[in-house]
Amino acid sequence: MPDLAGKGHHGAGKRVEFFETLTASLLRYAGHQFERGARAADGHAKGEHIDAARRHPLYRAPPEEAVPPMPFELAHVWEWFAQLNRKRQNGMAVNPIASTEILAWQARHAIAIEPFEHQLLDQLDALFLSHQHAAG
Questions:
Q1: What is the CB-side half-sphere exposure of residue 40 using CA atoms within 13 A?
Q2: What is the pLDDT of residues 60-85, one digit of tens each?
Q3: pTM of the complete model beyond 0.85
Q4: Does any domain span residue 1?
Q5: Burial of 71 (0-12, 13-18, 19+ CB in 10 A)
Q6: Is residue 4 situated within a structural domain?
Q7: Is 6 among the domain residues?
């Protein structure tokens, strides 16, 4: 397995900083997407309300926020999360994606997830859950 964080190698601090920056960027992007997708009291996504307000000629919509960029280096992790999220088990509330679900998904798609990527999936899931619980 490659040592993505560069532990024990010359320049390891720069590699760690690089991955921390990418992770922070992806989490900012995800947080923006989760906020737009959060349900308002009427059941529609908040982003739909904002977009509709911007199209209405008589309503002053809030200023348009800059969308945080998706770091292309981690776009595959975002896609994996989206696929896993669609298969999420729900009971009385939205549940975390179980490790067994991730393992089954890996086997089904013949993908080996690196530990760094698995941690990032867990961080995305925790961020998603925090947005879901805040909306509920």
A1: 9
A2: 766 777 889 999 999 999 999 999 99
A3: no
A4: no
A5: middle
A6: no
A7: no
